[in-house]
Amino acid sequence: MTKEFRSVQGFNDILSPEIAKFQHIESVARRCFGLFNFREVRTPVLEQAGLFERSIGTSTDIVEKEMYTFEDKGGERLSLRPEGTAPVARTYIEHNIDKQDALQRWFYIGPMFRHERPQRGRLRQFHQAGVEIFGTDDPFADVETILLADTIISSLAVRDVTARLNSIGCPVCRPAYLKELRSYLGSVRERLCEDCRKRADTNPMRVLDCKKEGCLEATASAPRTTDHLCNDCSGHLSGLRSGLDALKIPYTIDTRLVRGLDYYSRTVFEFAPARDTRAQNAIVAGGRYDYLVELLGGPHTPAIGFAMGIERMAALIDTPVQRGPAVFFVPLSSESRVKAVRLAGVLRHTGRTCEIGYGEKTIKSMLRRADRLGADLVIIIGEEELRDGFVTLKRMSDGTQERVNDADLPDAVGRMKS
RNA sequence: GUGGGUGUAGCUCAAUGGUAGAGCAUUGGACUGUGGCUCCAAGGGCUGAGGGUUCGAACCCCUUCACCCACCCCA
Predict the structure, then answer these.
(1) I need a labelling partner for A183 at 20 to 30 A (CA). Which of A32, A201, A234, A385 fits?
(2) Are A258 and A174 in contact (CB under 8 A)?
(3) Whole-number Å distance between alpha carbons of A366 and A28
(4) Phi and psi dihedrals of A402, rounded to 5?
């Protein structure tokens, strides 16, 4: 069949039963955010293109070729947000949050957009849940951010996920490090892949992140960020590590871990399935961005956060069982349907989920439907029930059924269900 | 952006140039107001689309579209 309309490439419909995973992940995430006392912030999906260009960095792939950027009718250059941090930082600045209380703990959940070739774990519209802590450079904020990510992952019963961690320094120590790294990379240049030769000039730290064997070997003895941190950065890192150790949160230091976004400083981290060697396997990633708010025109505001990929998390969990309705009504005439609607209203008032069968279908087909939906109880209303003011209440699990007077229905439903 | 793979019923897949099929699902019946189990039956397809070769194409060729996977990169 040729369908006239289909969803746009990389923009997927999410429907039952897959939707149950999303609902579960989001509700677990919300609960954890709430328990850590983070407040929700909802920002628009559209922002000025410049916000991302400046924050993420113009030489990153995201900005260079993956943004949905267009001119609207007013001639403004707008972008669908490719990530959540920059918009939230913009919000922090725009509403002068620091004037009230510079320390803020925020979370967001929503769709993000990147124009890439879709594949496993990568879509053009995807969903992230993330947090940001603004207004402190206390390493304990880093600890708590990582703890929160770890809490969500374990609350979702996802196993064998490991955390990798690194510090990429700050404007004080990074220039000297980069100088050293550049000269090292120059010395092994001919052993690097073509991409990495370019990166060696434009974004040398990314060379460390290359997965190609030749590059891995060539950079095996490259200078490490962690050996070139200034006193403050190194103190920050050890504060973070001792916090994680004290809480017994497992992690490994990975000096090759740099992140793809320009705004990170000091702490960067990533959670990924231990066994999965595929490239796009990070389910949570984040880091510190102490200079982003400033870069966007706000006051100096150290901050840290992470983003979790909801689709990627969904790939790691089982589909939760979706409960059927507590009660499915089987009215055998239009008069009895009126009664069914009335009784369903009473039951819904007591918190029972009810669905009423439609149409001229036979009792058999309606019962089949009730069975398929997984209804606990069925209420049959025919001629006799209508005339004498009762209903036939049937328990699907064992088929037992009884006559129940209309007025006794809520009690009888409670009794039969248990 | 580059490379590979796949498109046949709602779903998962057969059919290798000669009448398009199965399982599951759906609907109905056996069972006239009673679901699941079993049995019986039915509906459902321009074989992604367009063109070509051939007496004849799901199958071969060309074009195109879509999806999947990988690279790149990222959540």
Answers:
(1) A234
(2) no
(3) 35
(4) -150, 160
